[in-house]
Design a protein that fits this description.
With 345 residues, this protein is mainly alpha-helical. Helix content is 77%, strand content 0%.
């Protein structure tokens, strides 16, 4: 047992190292040539650390790396980690390997909020209007889903899933209705957000996301042991004296808010919260004490890697990260469906 735990810890450390390498690599790749040594020198200089070697860095390279690539990379890390760990939590809550935060209306609520901000002209007036509307839309969608599913102060799993589907369909219809009254320019603006991407992300987006995402991840990691019990089933959880509804709703709320924060700064990005927990479960097993941090690291690594590939795949154009995650995630997910005939749990 101790040897197995040590092995998994080493794999987790290896994931962290690979993530660090992917992060540095994403700062090197792009239309403006910047060497690895220049990237390291810029970061050291901006952090007021002594640069370990001499490296000539132009003002253009300094601006590109620090004001464009670094915030873009950090948003990718935060969004990927948020989606990965939230997906693992949702799959644990519902004991369903196909569960993700979209099931309870987070994505559809964000889409309705985003399209509403564009239709009202708020998105053009302030860069933070669309993220704010998207976040509020997610909150309202989750709140409505829970309200519809609640019975006598309890929230059973099946009614919650059905309520999420119904709320998603309702919000999808509202979004489509708003789109029919928008002009072509606003339609393009909505489509640009809906595809999901990290381009044009600035330090302001990092500041928006970093607090809620890190707090959400910290709380989910603290509750990993309780999630292990919830994943066994409601009957087993009650048998050990766990207040099932309290912990289920707490985890659900934290995962939903973490996902909503990520969606509001990056747009709708699929497959990260679905595929990454599957991959990590194959490596670490069902123990959420290891699975949750692994899913966070894996999600961050996957999203930054997809964004880096999108930057170099079709130069000088870029393939948005939402398209890349779908292109890479769909085949792997289909492979998993064929390979795994039984439930993961």
């Amino acid at each position: 047992m101790m040897k197995e735990k040590l092995s998994k810890t080493l794999i987790l450390a290896a994931l962290a190292v690979v993530l660090l390498l992917v992060m540095v690599g994403s700062l090197v790749l792009g239309q403006v040539d910047v060497s690895m040594s220049s990237v390291i020198a810029i970061i050291f200089e901006k952090l007021n650390l002594p640069v370990p070697f001499d490296s000539h860095v132009s003002k253009e390279q300094m601006a590109v790396v620090w004001y464009i690539r670094v915030p873009r990379m950090l948003v990718g890390v935060l969004v990927g980690a948020a989606l990965g760990i939230s997906g693992a939590v949702m799959q644990g809550i519902f004991s369903n390997p196909l569960a993700d935060p979209g099931l309870i209306g987070v994505s559809s609520g964000a889409a309705t909020g985003a399209v509403l901000s564009i239709a009202l002209g708020a998105a053009n007036a302030n860069m933070f209007a669309m993220p704010a509307f998207a976040f509020c839309g997610s909150l309202c969608a989750v709140g409505l889903t829970v309200f519809l599913a609640m019975r006598n102060g309890k929230v059973p799993v099946m009614p919650l899933l059905l309520s999420g589907v119904a709320v998603g369909m309702l919000l999808g219809a509202i979004t489509s209705g708003i789109l029919t009254f928008m002009n072509e320019q606003k339609l393009q603006q909505y489509l640009f957000w809906m595809v999901g991407g990290l381009d044009y992300r600035r330090w302001e987006h990092v500041y928006i996301a970093i607090g809620p995402v890190l707090i959400g991840i910290f709380i989910m990691l603290l509750l990993a042991r309780h999630l292990n019990i919830l994943a066994l089933g409601e009957t087993e959880a009650k048998a050990v004296g766990m207040p099932v509804t309290t912990y289920r709703m707490s985890l659900l709320f934290v995962a939903a808010m973490t996902t909503a924060t990520s969606v509001c700064v990056s747009g709708s990005i699929g497959f990260v919260g679905l595929v990454i927990p599957h991959m990590m479960r194959m490596l670490f097993g069902p123990d959420h004490r290891m699975l949750l941090p692994a899913s966070a690291l894996g999600g961050a690594m996957f999203l930054v890697l997809c964004d880096s590939l999108g930057k170099v795949l079709m130069p000088p154009a870029e393939v948005r990260v939402g398209i890349m995650t779908a292109l890479l995630g769909t085949p792997y997910f289909l492979y998993l469906l064929r390979r795994m005939q039984k439930n993961f749990f």
